[in-house]
Each structure stands twice: as C-alpha cells, then as structure tokens.
C-alpha cells in the first residue's frame, strides 16, 4: 500500500504508509505507526483527510477512534491531532489510546500520581487517592474523581471532581473541556453550557476566592511555582 510524502516538488508515493484507516462498528479506526516521526504522521493525516480519503470521509457525522500503538504523545501533540481532524466538520474524535501506556509510564510516575489509558464510559466511575492523569476521554455519564489534580488528555464530557477530600487548591485540566459538571472540593461548577469554548488549547478549572474559573493550561504557572511534570506523556 502506498504512502504520500511531501517533497520540494509536491507529494510523491512511497511503498509504506504510516496511517491505516479501518471501518469499525463505532465509526472509523485510525491506526498510527508508533515508529515514525510524529510530524510525518501529521503530514500524512492532513493529506488523507484532504486528498486521498476525501470522498470516503465525506458525509454525516463519523466517530473517530485513534490508536497510537506504543507511542506516547504530549498534550500539545494530542491537541494537534484533534485540531487536524476537527477541520473536517463531520469527524468527531471519540478516543485516543495507546497500548500498554500505563506499564510504560509506571517508572515515570511521581508518588501519588496515577496514569491511566482508556475511556471512562457512561455509568463508570474512576477514583484515585492522589493526582490522576487520563490519556483518553470521559464520556457523558462517566465520572472521574480524586483527592488531587485531574488531567484529561482527551475530551472531558462527563463529571470530574478534583480535591474530593476537601482540596480547594486542586485543578481539573482537559484537552477538550465539555463537562456536564465540574467540582473542586465542595464547589460545583456553573451550568455546563458556559464551558463551551472554540479554543483548541488545553484548559484548566481552578478556584479563585471560592468561585470556579477556567483558563488556558499555559497560565498554570501563575498559580504554582512547582507544577506537576508528566515526563514522557
């Protein structure tokens, strides 16, 4: 099967592709090569969405599930993937998952920090004592809670409760902030429709004078001199 590569004179064909698109019951499955450069994946993804697979991906709403293999990506790279796919108005990213990510990252976890790969589905509750990093989505009807901070490297569409033992300094961050409810300590967020933002940047919720606020994750350093660092994620 051929792959498209960009050169000085335009795209040309080579023998191998790094992105495989398969039809599944839930929509489409994007299988990403975990050995090539990430920028190369982005170039190929753009080409397939705009050129080679344009007709196949045209039509009603299609749910997209991305599998990274054993590759680990940063929150910025996650946002890049979502932004490219979001340009096609009928494509909706439902999940971005990596194989054995929890095992690969175990040695990098800080005390009290848990890293989990997967999707919290409707009716499911994920609870941890400490900080929690989820490389996946929280679907409507799903709940994620912990005594520390919550970081969702995916879409937060369910309920998130950080500092559930009374920690008012905790935060809730997500690559896509679309919660049905946010709670920090004993403070509950305002109506969910007020959280809708067109900004593709990762955001975080925090308490200021007892009221919940939201800002871009790049502003977290203003609150904390020593933020939690997730190496290799």
TrEMBL record:
Residue ranges constituting the Septum formation inhibitor MinC C-terminal domain according to the UniProt record: 115-214
Keywords, in A-Z order: Cell cycle, Cell division, Septation
Subunit and partners: Interacts with MinD and FtsZ.
GO biological process: cell morphogenesis; division septum assembly; regulation of cell septum assembly
Job description of the protein: Cell division inhibitor that blocks the formation of polar Z ring septums. Rapidly oscillates between the poles of the cell to destabilize FtsZ filaments that have formed before they mature into polar Z rings. Prevents FtsZ polymerization.
Name of the protein: Probable septum site-determining protein MinC
Taxonomic source organism: Paenibacillus sabuli
Domain of life: Bacteria
Family the UniProt entry places it in: Belongs to the MinC family.
């Amino acid at each position: 099967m051929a792959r498209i590569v960009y050169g000085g004179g335009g795209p040309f064909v080579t023998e191998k592709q790094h992105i495989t698109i398969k039809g599944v019951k839930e929509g489409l499955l994007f299988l990403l090569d975990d050995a090539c450069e990430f920028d190369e994946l982005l170039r190929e993804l753009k080409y397939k969405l705009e050129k080679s697979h344009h007709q196949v991906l045209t039509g009603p709403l299609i749910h997209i599930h991305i599998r990274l293999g054993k590759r680990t990506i940063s929150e910025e790279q996650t946002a890049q993937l979502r932004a490219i796919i979001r340009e096609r108005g009928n494509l909706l990213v439902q999940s971005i998952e990596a194989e054995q990510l929890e095992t690969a990252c175990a040695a990098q976890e800080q005390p009290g920090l848990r890293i989990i790969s997967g999707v919290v589905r409707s009716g499911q509750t994920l609870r941890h004592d400490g900080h929690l990093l989820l490389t996946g989505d929280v679907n409507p009807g799903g709940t994620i809670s912990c005594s520390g901070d919550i970081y969702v490297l995916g879409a937060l569409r369910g309920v998130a409760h950080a500092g559930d033992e009374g920690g008012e300094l905790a935060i809730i961050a997500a690559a896509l902030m679309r919660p049905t409810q946010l709670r920090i300590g004993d403070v509950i967020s305002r109506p969910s429709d007020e959280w809708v933002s067109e900004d593709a940047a990762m955001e975080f919720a925090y308490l200021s004078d007892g009221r919940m606020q939201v800002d871009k994750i790049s502003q977290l350093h203003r609150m904390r001199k020593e933020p939690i660092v997730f190496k290799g994620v």
